[in-house]
Amino acid sequence: MKHPRIFAAQLGCAKNQVDGEHMLAELYSAGFVSTENAEKADFLLINTCGFIEDAKTESINTVLSFIEAKKPSQKLIVTGCLSGRYMEELPKEMPEVDYWLGTYEPGKILKVLGLGEKASGTENLARLNLGDYKHHAYLKVAEGCDRRCAFCAIPNIRGKQISFSIESIIQEAKELEAQGVQELTLIAQDTTFYGHDQGCKTGPSLAKLLKAVLKETNIPWIRTLYWYPEFIDDELLDLMANEPRICKYVDMPIQHASSHVLKLMRRSYNQQSLRKMLTDIRTKIPGVTLRTTVLVGFPGETQEDFEELMQLIQDVRFEHLGGFVFSPEEGTPAMKLKEEPVPEELARARLDAIQDLQEEISSEANEALIGKEVKVLIDEVAEESDYHFIGRTEGNSLDSDDIVKIVEGDANPGEFYMVKIIDAEPHELIGRIVSHA
Questions:
Q1: 81 is in an annotated binding site
Q2: Of these four, 163, 243, 339, 408, which has the most CB atoms within 10 Å of its CB?
Q3: Same domain for 269 and 352?
């Protein structure tokens, strides 16, 4: 019996990547085999993103390129946020696509392909890890989001938050550990809200989940993405401060600092409470790395609002910061605001100013590490370059933060080493290996 071959293209965020891993696990369980050559595939799968305009454009262009290249005998499957968000419109615009699915639902892809009888027991499938490095994996702990931020379409696409059971998460974590994972990144739209959707204070929480992962596995690095200011408590901060296996790393997208803009954005905090929270994190977790994301150009944002954001960035000195210009998304509360939109040219100028400031802050933070020894996880061999290996400290998340370039010493990817930092740039550290960690 011939096993159908499938080629998969993965777009979007890490949460979408995990969805793609679960879909492919189901297909493999039903007899499909993977191929890295799209021309040789019987099925082509595109897992799309539809969060903001740039992501939608990339997804649509990818689908169109697959439509143009696919053979008559090949079947094209489009899944993910874009198709889920525009399920009524897209099939009419792209009839060449054979199967349209939304975001991941256990067993759905098998049923759509007519393999429903093989869909039972999908919750017990082996956990695939299709990331670039086998020593790192993402593990999604919840689906959806209860926050109704004015600019965000995620609740419309993925619904309200549903936290997965600690037992199911631990099962996945153990499977990933058995595959050699050394760094596990727990992800959700809002990890700090984990368990709160169940409405019981004695039920699960992020702190309880982390304690279970610590107890049931020996994975050396455990990281969490993303935090929301409203649901951070002392138990969580104390756990991060005292447990060496939990990376002292907080990625908390604040979006803005002006109380005026935060209210327009429907964020449930103001500048005063935000500053207190950031101070508490710095105080309770010595050596913590802070990452954030900010959004400029939101309707109603004044020059004074922008200057308040700049001042907070200057005061807090985030080690890492990403920024975006407001993108109006249909179906979001922001589309109904009466406030004047910020001209795009002005919004982009504001983002440039933030990025220039952050460049200075990141440079200072990295230069402060020169001469110090830090623990580094080696990610890969640096092929055809003037350095030997690429790695990261616990203060650098995969795919979004700085790297460590190793210019002296030998190492194995997926292992930890003590590295002496001998030079630094705004987004990279340069070091030599001192010893195995």
A1: yes
A2: 163
A3: yes
